[in-house]
Amino acid sequence: MTTDISSEGLMAIYDALEASPTGNIAVKLSTGEPGSNYLRTDLIGDLVQSLEATIVECNTAYGGSRSNTAMHYQVAEDHSYTAIADVDIMDEEGSITLPVEGGDNLTENYVGAHFENYDYFVVLSHFKGHAMAGYGGAIKNISIGIASSEGKTNIHTGGKGGSMWSGEQDAFLESMAEAGKSVVNSLDGNILYINVMNRLSVDCDCDGNPAEPDMHDIGILASFDPVAVDQACVDLVYAAEDGQSLINRIESRNGLHTLEQAEKIGLGSRTYQLVSIDE
């Protein structure tokens, strides 16, 4: 962890992992709805360019400005992502399926077809609240985030299909963990996670008119374990004197259940050691 939320801090936290990705590298982030708290290029640009990576994303399933590929590429350009890297909307040519092992809800996960074009994923997440999941971090970014539009509905409904707004809440939360595990299994360890804890609104980057943050920025955390890094972020919110709004959002959606399911199925561990790299 570093409390330095800057381009230099992001580079330092990445270097601290001592990762050595090779091949075709993807940086998975949320391109964000217009007006949202998406990660700005002045923060992430140096890291993305140092990796010679492609920024990857998938279309949404709820409408909005990113529900079709042409509009989505325009948002990516408007948010300056195309100025720092190539951008690939991975489901512009449909989906492929990944098997889900040991899940209680899903047997398969539909991800953008271009997912298989990449050898290593750097998962760059803006940690924040979320209207349906309670919070959004690394697990959400590798599940809902890498899922195709079709796959997002599959996760939201716990694999049952139908309206994505009518799914059972705990089944949705569990399915995020299960979909995430299918992604991690398919990459065989070629993935790492960085969570940026700034502009900590109770609302997601999928919300074009998010609530203004009412708590302070905290820092940047990185790990090879998506469960550990999300749990650490949650714990930092709970420890903050001004974190009550985000805590209320997490608890009102039973958001910690995603972490429970993720640990249960072997996606990662909720036990961690937090190491500061600040001098």
Provide a descriptive summary of the structure in words:
By secondary structure, the chain is of the alpha/beta class. 34% of the residues lie in helices and 16% in strands. It has helices spanning 7-17, 41-50, 69-78, 138-142, 149-156, 169-187, 226-239, 244-252, 256-264, and strands spanning 25-28, 54-57, 87-89, 95-99, 108-112, 120-126, 128-130, 134-136, 191-197, 219-223. The strands form 3 sheets. Strands 3-2-1-6-9-10 form a 6-stranded mixed β-sheet, with helices on both faces. The mean pLDDT is 96.
What is the helix fraction of residues, given as a range? 25-40%
User: How many helices does DSSP assign?
Assistant: 9
Q: Based on the structure, what is the oligomeric state of the protein chains?
A: single chain
What's the main sheet like? Answer: 6 strands, mixed
User: How does the overall form come out from the CA principal axes?
Assistant: globular
- Overall pLDDT confidence: 96
Strand and helix order: HEHEHEEEEEEHHHEEHHH
Total strands: the figure is 10
* Rg, Å, rounded: 17 Å
Identify the strand order in the major beta sheet: 3-2-1-6-9-10
Cα separation of the termini: 11 Å
Structural class: alpha/beta
